[in-house]
Structure formats: structure tokens, C-alpha cells
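Quick start: read one record
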Amino acid sequence: MSKKSSPNSPPSTTTVSSVFVQAGDCRIVIAILKCGKWVELQLSESVPNLLEIGGNQEETKKLLQDHELLLSKLKVPW
């Protein structure tokens, strides 16, 4: 027997796809979720943490370069 959801219950959420982007030593994984009519992007993983600023000026410059490269890979040309 199938279990029917009641009209008042929220729709279930399904992972449609995952996107992996890597630049230098940085990587992110984004999950594409579908819930009813809505599609949501969720940051699933970030290595290193996107808020990390580095322990010295050299690390900070490297993180900034890698994060900028990640952003450029995520941008979609229209």
C-alpha cells in the first residue's frame, strides 16, 4: 500500500544534483535541492572554510587568489 501525504504536510526535499568546484587548494561542493516548486542551492562543503583569512599575509593572499578563482569558475557567461 502506498502512503499518501496529507494536503497540509510540507513537500519532501530531494537532492537533484551536486556540483564540485576546485581551484588550487580550495574546493566547494554545492547541492541542488528541489522542494515542491522551489529549487535551492546549498553549500555542502567548503575546504578551507570560506571565512578563513589565513595565519599570515602569504596565506591570506593565497586564499584570496583561490577564492577568486572559485568565483570565476562559478560565474555563468550570459
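Residues 57-74 form the longest helix (18 residues).
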